[in-house]
């Protein structure tokens, strides 16, 4: 069965706690590749998130307002179940290192086993964002480092407030 490219729905999933400029770069680039992109924000209490699912969805929406074909949705459980329920046939994954590629390859094979219609596309962030991760951003924020060059502008006030840095420079 052939699928027209206009019907392709892609999803970029993650915890995004918080969204970084690396995530934002992948979202913007993937939004140019696919007619519809869903940013699937995972609820995983094991990761001990700093922001609630609703807060993360809101921060991503605020960071991607310029993208008409991007929708942000929260989910819990398996990404393949989210994909099936939302008509997703392409899963976008960001990879920064060889370790990420190996892990994402294993996940892609397993996801394809669970949902044969689901393909995975791996994108590397722009070089200036290749070092960024949400955990690094949280650690640096907690230690008082500047964050304006790490996260989209709408995230800066929420991040500073969450770490009790409301009145200090970003």
Structure notes:
This protein is of the alpha/beta class. α4 links the parallel β4 and β5. The chain is globular and about 45 Å long. The protein has a five-stranded parallel beta sheet, with helices on both faces. 38% of the residues lie in helices and 17% in strands.
Order of helices and strands: EHEHEHEHEHH
Shape: globular
> Could you estimate the helical fraction of the residues in percent?
25-40%
Described by strand count, sense and barrel closure, the largest sheet is: 5 strands, parallel
Mean pLDDT: 91
Distance between the termini: 51 Å
Rg measurement, Å: 16 Å
Low-confidence stretches: none
Order of strands side by side in the largest beta sheet?
3-2-1-4-5
Secondary-structure content class: alpha/beta
Query: How much strand content do the residues show?
Result: 15-25%
β-strand number: 5
Keyphrases for this structure?
170 residues, alpha/beta, five-stranded parallel beta sheet, 6 helices
Short recap of the structure:
The chain is of the alpha/beta class.
What order do the helices and strands come in, and which of them pair?
Elements (H helix, E strand, L loop, with lengths): L8 E6 L6 H13 L2 E7 L10 H11 L6 E6 L3 H8 L3 E5 L3 H17 L4 E5 L10 H9 L13 H7 L8
Parallel strand pairs: 1-2, 1-4, 2-3, 4-5
